[in-house]
Each structure stands twice: as structure tokens, then as C-alpha cells.
Write a structure and sequence with these properties.
Elements: H1 14-18, E1 26-29, H2 37-44, E2 52-56, H3 69-74, E3 75-79, H4 87-91, E4 96-97, H5 105-110, E5 118-123, E6 131-133, H6 141-147, E7 150-155, E8 167-169, E9 175-178, H7 193-206, E10 212-215, H8 219-224, E11 235-236, E12 240-241, H9 245-250, E13 266-268, E14 270-271, H10 275-281, E15 287-289, H11 292-295, H12 298-301, E16 307-311, E17 315-317, E18 322-323, E19 326-327, E20 330-331, H13 338-347, E21 352-356, E22 360-361, E23 366-367, E24 369-370, E25 388-391, E26 394-397, H14 403-413, H15 416-428, E27 452-455, E28 461-466, H16 472-481, H17 484-491, H18 500-509, E29 515-524, E30 527-538, E31 543-550, H19 559-573, E32 578-583, H20 588-597, E33 600-605, E34 610-615
Helix pairs in contact: 14-15
Length: 619
């Protein structure tokens, strides 16, 4: 390349290129694993430079100099994101954090709100036509190149050549510095495997085959990917590619073939990982690396049908506010584009968003579900934008829910040790009724075994799971949807009102072993409605009383028999030998159902009703 006449006068050493920088200059440095390390070291070691302002999105190499007084006297560092290595320096005031959406950053360059004199980038070797690639870092770097007065590029044969928006012609570069070195490699931080596995189990419930995923920056979202091995034909439209995606692509789990937008392409803005990812994306047409102001814009994101945003958080308060960039006054990351992807999911046909986080921090001493965000904490995502929040203890669905409903949903998925105190704090904040009972202070992972699905005769799918305190409104709606005769056959008298006291009494007795209710849920216009409920309650050590009701428009679909057998399965696992059902003599359908479901049955008349005793089979 050095002998090529096309590059005559442009090929220089790093020292020669950087000697053109004047004191007082404003410099943008390529981001993340694409940063030109050789140029950065040469820049810092040029002691003729003074009063230099450096802008960078994801910085790594500069972290090595932040304890050097000479560096701090000559350079001021402005970051759009605070990576792990920079957190303490940001807290100590050695670097300055600029909160901004990455998707809006190119516009700040273009409009000269942030003026760039010189840009330092790293590129792949140019091809026969003089075209090089920004490789692993297209993101905001491309617009910085276009806006800068001087462009200095380190040519590194180890930089992958990626397809998309990141191509540059050598004529648009002022100085070329050939220098081969390994790119920065980032191993994903380890996450406690049992926690990630449990969170993934809930996240998987929300991800259908054929969905297009965004996986947010942070170790938790990427840790979940390895548990997606039971999914099929997923697509990718995200901000960052990491090593975690590669096995799923090789296994044919990520195919991108059902994406309706950018079909057959995994769309991203940059890549951070190891050689595993860098070698895989090199000249791989399956990937499209675009600029952040295109990839990360809600209107573009929303073009993907069935789009699912999976991101993380440091804290979520009981109203649904999400903090993901700071712990109190200490910055831990950046604004990024979390809210853009969440809003993009809202615009997507069939889309949804998920905030996934461990329930606790500091070895279980601190709850991440909090009554109030820490003093100084920033709100990265507004409460009105949040849809699902997932911890290792379950799923909270917040969209469309009131503050009191959100409190119950989030307390259910908090660590059991913190649930009661969170309820008490919510009462002090006047978020919930004074008589609200806290969710059980117990890890309810065992009730996952009680979940099931059935295809109904009408073609719809019904999911069955235990009733939870957060179902109070849906439970109420179910009751009021029933006809008077159905209510009478269930309760033996006319019940006109389903009060909060009735609901609270129900929760007070429920322990999911000796007393439990299973509900049947069917999707109707984007919302899951309760169409059936079955309950058993302990009578003695061997017998439980059972009752259930199915909404009229879903009767004769096989629901009653299915829930009856599911209740038997759960009751048998919890040590019961049989059921007692008390019903009216005119309730012929209930009597016939008991006879159909149980071979060992005994019917005993009472004063106003009949008792049906059903012994479980020992098979």
C-alpha cells in the first residue's frame, strides 16, 4: 500500500500525522473496540500538545492515563458513555460525562453543536478501489469523520471489513498511518449462572419464534442469549454485536429470514467482543453495520414487526421508572438508546420491550426493585414507556397499569426478603390501599411447574398458570363478565359485587401448595383475559375442596376438564389424595364432568346440595 501512487503524500507515521494538531484542538476518537490504540498512545505522549479536548463514546485506552497528572493537565476528556474502566475517574471528576442519545450524536456533529477539528479512527486496509471500512465501529464515527476538518486513520489489517454504512474512500482521509495491532477485546462479564438461567426462563416466555431482537448493552442481557437455544428463526436489529450472538447464528437459531425489514441481515452499529466475533463479521454479508442515527431511531426500529427490546437496569422504582446509567450520583454507563429501542418496540406491530435485571445487588443486601430511586439517580426510561420488567422471581407487566397495580406487579418479582418492606414504603408513598397484603415472602419458582398451555377447539391457545395478587383487576373483570346463572351455580347464591375485601381474603389464604387457584388466559386484541378459574383449598391432610368456573363463551371447549386434571396434578404433587366438590343438584354439567374425570367417585346428598368425593388415581 505504501508504494501505491493513490496514497502518495498521505502515508505517514503516527508522530508525523499528530504533529499537525494544534494546541486547543477538539479531537474525536473512534469508539469502543474500534479505537486506534497506536494513535492514542502517540497523542498522549506528544508533550508539545496542550489544552486538547477529547470526545469519545466508548473509551478504553485513555483509562490507562487518568492517574497521570501530566495527562490531566494537558487533556480534558468528554465521554458520551462511562464504561467500567472510567467509572471511578468520572466520580472523581477526571472525565466529563455528556448525557445524550447516541442516535442524536451525529446530528450534534453535523449542526456544529459539538465542533470537531481532528478525528482519529481505525480502518481496514483499502481494497483495489481505495475503499476501506470502519469495521467494528460505524455508530457515530462516520458522521464525526464527515464533520472533522482533519481525518487521521490508522490502517490495521486486523480490523474486519464490515458491510453497511461504514465504507470510506481514501480520498476522504488526510493522513494514513499503517500500524498492525490486535483490536481491543472485551470478554463478557460473568453473571451468576443460576440467576441468568432463571431470568432467561421468564424472558423466553415473552419471545416468540421469528421475533426480531435488540439486546441492550450490559452483561445481563447478553448472558441471557445462551439460553435461547430452544427458539427458532430469530432476527437481530440491535446497537451492538458481541460474541454471544455468534453461537446462535451458527446453530441456525438466529437466521433473520423472517424479518420484514432488512430481511436476512443482522443490523447493528458496532461490535465489541473478541476475535470470535471479529473474524465472524469480517466480510460477512449477513451483517449490516449502520450509523446510530439510523439504526437506533424509533421510526426505523418500529419497521420491524414483532420487535422485542431486551435491556437492563440498575434500579426500577415501584412506579416503573428505570435508572440504567448511575447509582445515585455515580455514573455507571450512559444514556445510550435504551428508551429509543423501547419506543421502537411500541411502534412495532406485535412488538414489546423487556427490562431484565437481577432482583438484588451487593450479594443480596440491596434490592434493585426500590420504593424510590436513589438520590441523584437518572431516569433513563420513563414509567409510561416501560412494558415488562423481569427478574429471577418472575415477570411484571406494567404497560397500561395503574400505580397501585404496578406496585403489586413489581413487589411480586422483588426478592422475597424485601417484599413486605416495599409494600410498607408504597403505603407511606400513598401508592396503594392501606389494607393491601404483601406478596408471599417466599421464592415461588416452584409454581413454574404449574404452568401449561392447551389448544382449544376454537383454535385459540389458552395458557394456564397460578393466580397472583397482581391479577386482581383481571380477576374482577372475569367475575363481572359472568352471567348471573353461572355465578349462582358457583356460589349457590346471587353475588352482585366482587369487592376488594373478597380479593384480599382470597390472597390471604393462598399458599400455592395447600390452597391455590389456576387461571386460564386467552389473548384478545393484545390483552390476555381470564376465561376460567379453578381452585382447591385444604380440608385436611388428604382432601381438598375444589371449585371452578368457565366463562360462557368459552364453555364446551374442553377447558373445564383440562383445568380439573391440572388441579389434580398440582394437588397430588402437594400430598392430597382426592377432591371434594360441593354443587347444586341442577348443575348437571359439573356432575357429569366429575364422573368423566375421575373413575373413583362417590356422590353424597346434603341439605341443599350434593357432595362429590373424587379419589385420585395412583398411576
Amino acid at each position: 500500500m505504501v508504494k501505491d501512487n493513490r496514497f502518495k503524500g498521505k502515508v505517514v507515521t503516527a508522530g508525523e500525522a499528530l504533529s499537525t494538531i494544534k494546541n486547543g484542538s477538539r479531537i474525536f476518537i473512534g469508539s469502543g473496540c474500534g479505537e486506534p490504540q497506536h494513535l492514542i498512545h502517540t497523542l498522549v505522549n506528544n508533550h508539545n500538545l496542550d489544552d486538547i479536548m477529547i470526545f469519545q463514546m466508548l473509551a478504553h485506552t485513555l483509562a490507562d492515563y487518568l492517574n497521570d497528572d501530566s495527562f490531566l493537565q494537558r487533556f480534558s476528556v468528554k465521554l458520551f458513555f462511562v464504561p467500567i474502566k472510567m467509572q471511578q475517574a468520572a466520580f472523581e471528576g477526571k472525565v466529563d460525562y455528556i448525557p445524550t442519545y447516541l442516535s442524536q450524536l451525529p446530528q450534534l456533529f453535523k449542526n456544529k453543536q459539538i465542533v470537531i477539528d481532528t478525528v482519529l479512527i481505525q480502518i481496514s486496509p483499502p481494497d483495489a478501489f481505495g475503499i476501506a471500512s470502519l469495521g467494528v465501529s460505524v455508530d457515530v464515527t462516520l458522521e464525526a469523520v464527515k464533520s472533522a476538518k482533519t481525518v487521521i486513520a490508522q490502517i490495521n489489517p486486523r480490523m474486519p471489513r464490515t458491510h453497511g454504512d461504514g465504507f470510506l474512500h481514501i480520498k476522504d482521509i488526510d493522513y494514513l498511518v499503517p500500524f498492525e495491532e490486535e483490536l481491543i477485546c472485551i470478554d463478557q462479564e460473568t453473571v451468576e449462572d443460576s440467576t441468568a438461567c432463571r431470568i432467561a426462563q421468564y424472558v423466553r416466555e415473552l419471545v416468540d419464534d421469528g421475533s426480531t431482537l435488540q439486546v441492550g448493552y450490559g452483561h445481563m442481557p447478553y448472558a441471557l442469549l445462551k439460553y435461547f437455544d430452544n427458539k427458532n428463526d430469530l432476527g437481530i436489529h440491535t446497537h451492538m454485536i458481541s460474541d454471544a450472538f455468534i453461537p446462535l447464528i451458527k446453530q441456525g437459531i438466529i437466521t433473520n429470514k423472517y424479518k420484514n425489514f432488512m430481511t436476512d441481515r443482522a443490523v447493528a452499529t458496532f461490535c465489541m467482543g473478541t476475535r470470535v466475533a471479529y473474524d465472524y463479521i469480517d466480510n460477512n454479508i449477513q451483517f449490516y453495520f449502520g450509523t446510530a442515527d439510523w439504526v437506533n431511531t424509533p421510526g426505523i426500529i418500529g419497521k420491524n414487526d414483532n420487535f422485542i427490546s431486551i435491556s437492563s437496569a440498575l434500579e426500577v422504582d415501584l412506579t416503573g421508572q428505570v435508572c440504567s446509567d448511575s447509582v445515585g450520583k455515580q455514573f455507571f454507563s450512559g444514556t445510550g438508546d435504551q428508551s429509543n429501542f423501547i419506543r421502537g418496540a411500541t411502534l412495532s406491530k406485535g412488538g414489546l420491550s423487556i427490562i431484565a435485571l437481577p432482583a438484588t445487588a451487593r450479594g443480596g443486601k440491596v434490592s434493585r426493585i426500590v420504593a424510590n430511586l436513589s438520590a441523584g439517580a437518572g431516569v433513563a426510561t420513563l414509567r409510561a414507556d416501560v412494558n415488562f420488567v423481569v427478574t429471577e422471581f418472575g415477570i411484571a407487566q406494567l404497560k397500561g397499569k395503574s400505580i397501585s397495580q404496578r406496585v403489586i406487579e413489581l413487589c411480586q418479582i422483588a426478592h422475597p426478603d424485601f417484599r413486605e418492606s416495599l409494600i410498607e414504603e408504597a403505603k407511606k408513598n400513598h401508592y396503594i390501599f392501606p389494607d393491601q397484603l404483601p406478596p408471599l415472602a417466599e421464592d415461588l419458582i416452584f409454581i413454574e411447574e404449574y404452568k401449561s398451555r392447551i389448544k382449544l377447539k376454537n383454535g385459540k391457545t389458552m395458557s394456564v398458570r397460578p393466580l397472583l395478587p397482581s391479577d386482581e383487576i383481571a380477576y374482577r373483570n372475569f367475575f363481572y363478565s359472568l352471567e348471573e346463572e353461572t355465578v349462582y351455580l358457583r356460589f349457590f347464591h346471587s353475588v352482585k359485587i366482587f369487592s376488594r375485601k373478597m380479593a384480599q381474603d382470597h390472597w390471604a389464604n393462598m399458599d400455592y401448595r395447600k390452597n391455590i387457584s389456576l387461571i386460564g388466559l386467552v389473548q384478545t386484541k393484545g390483552n390476555k383475559e381470564i376465561v376460567a378459574i379453578g381452585t382447591y383449598a385444604k380440608m385436611d391432610d388428604t382432601w381438598a375442596e375444589v371449585a371452578f368456573v368457565v366463562r360462557e363463551d368459552f364453555q364446551n371447549q374442553g377447558i373445564a376438564g383440562y383445568i380439573f386434571k391440572e388441579l389434580e396434578r398440582v394437588a397430588s404433587a402437594n400430598g392430597f389424595d382426592g377432591f371434594l366438590a360441593t354443587t347444586l343438584p341442577e348443575n348437571k354439567s359439573m356432575i357429569n364432568l366429575c364422573k368423566k374425570c375421575f373413575s373413583d367417585i362417590k356422590i353424597t346428598p346434603t341439605h341443599e346440595a350434593i357432595e362429590i368425593w373424587m379419589k385420585f388415581s395412583k398411576e
